[in-house]
Amino acid sequence: MAEILGVGMTHFPPLSAQDERMTAAFTRMINHPSTPEEAKTGSALPAELVAELGDDRGLSAAAEHRDRLRRNLATVRTRLDEFNPDLVVVWGDDQYENFKESVIPPFCVLAYDEFTHKPWKNFHLGDNAWGEDSDTELRVAGNNRAGRYLAGGLIEAGFDVAYSYRPNEYDGLSHAFTNTVLYLDYDRKGFPYPILPISVNCYGGLVISAKGLFVDPGNPPSGDALDPPSPSPTRCFDLGAATARVMAASPWRVALVASASWSHGFLAACNRYLYPDVASDRRLFEALEAGDYDAWRSYPLESITKSGQQEMLNWFCLLGAMSELGSKLQWAELVETYIFNSNKAFVLF
Predict the structure, then answer these.
(1) CA-CA distance, 95 to 100, in Å (whole number)?
(2) Cα–Cα distances in Å, from 321 out to 193, 236, 238, 287, 338?
(3) What is the C-alpha separation between 317 and 260, in angstroms, rounded?
(4) How far apart are alpha carbons 16 and 256 in whole angstroms?
(5) Are 230 and 44 in contact (CB under 8 A)?
(6) Would you tell me which of 62, 64, 138, 341 could form a disulfide with 265, CB atoms 3.0–4.6 Å apart?
(7) At what angle do helices 59-83 and 175-184 cross, to 10 degrees?
(8) In terms of Cα–Cα distance, which of 278, 303, 276, 305 is closest to 203?
(9) Whole-Å CA distances, 260 to 61, 149, 151, 315
């Protein structure tokens, strides 16, 4: 039987950029022409958000936020190195990158032999945090054999997942997987572990209609303008459980990783698309700490959409896996934030 490590982490905000750009998503939405002026006043915004902005538009808070995230990422990397996996399976969202109008699979196992990507070639947030040039190449080992094994096992278990042996419309790794590697190798000591990405269509109704990103807060897509929905939290949870069963029977030491922040402000209709739904995230985090897997599995897709928690579907996969294995939570931290546009959680099972 395989040994399995469960990991939850974030791939946002853009730690790859300088601190000055960390509030880019919040700035875009609060300055959007459709955002009413009355929503921008200090009295209309949470006190925590106003405090984070301070008198330098969030620059001081950004440095503190980066420090906190780096400490959490270092904890995850240390545990990963101690575990020394043969394979790192990562659930991540495809945000209108590798999958576009040609095909949108609910789940896709990326069974590549290797991933090669130039993360700064089209980087839109200025200079990167490491001072690397636009030709810098990120090369990460894949594992085609493990990908075929997992896809086959999931299909036999009743999950008709897609699988891929080469990129579709994106050269290399899309942002969820690229940032996972970049952040876990923040100190640039190398990332020696083969990865097996599983793309999850987290964006559902917005994947084509909003290009998987920002909406017009005054006229968000609705009705016939929306795409078909994403897989439900229940389906993601059950897919994670099936993944755990398949990989537990494998010959490999496997890290199962959910890579995503929690509610995103630029998706949170309940907060005028300005800041994350901290209260909803906190309730789910408390259920995670309590081992209340039923609260996770029964979470409605409508709540995901209302609270801007689309990318959390990756975490529902992880929680399903940990529930199936009866794994014990070893460590967890929730980093609540407002101007950095998404709450961050870190866990080890």
Answers:
(1) 9
(2) 21, 10, 8, 16, 30
(3) 11
(4) 23
(5) no
(6) 341
(7) 80
(8) 305
(9) 21, 25, 22, 7
Among 65, 7, 113, smallest CA distance to 346 is for 7
In this structure, what token pair is assigned to residue 147? 């990908």
Tokens for 335, please give them.
Answer: 């980093």
Q: How far apart are CA 335 and CA 299, in angstroms?
A: 21
| CA–CA gap between residue 178 and residue 119 (Å, rounded) | 7
Domains identified in the chain and CATH numbers:
4-348 (3.40.830.10)
Question: Whole-model pTM?
Answer: 0.97
Over the chain (349 residues), the average pLDDT of each successive run of 10 is 93 95 96 95 94 97 98 98 98 96 98 95 94 95 98 98 95 93 97 98 97 92 96 98 98 98 96 97 98 98 97 98 97 97 97
Q: Distance between CA 325 and CA 53 in Å, rounded?
A: 42
Per-residue tokens: 176: 């969820």
CA atoms within 13 A on the CB side of 320: 26
Two tokens, residue 41: 């006043």
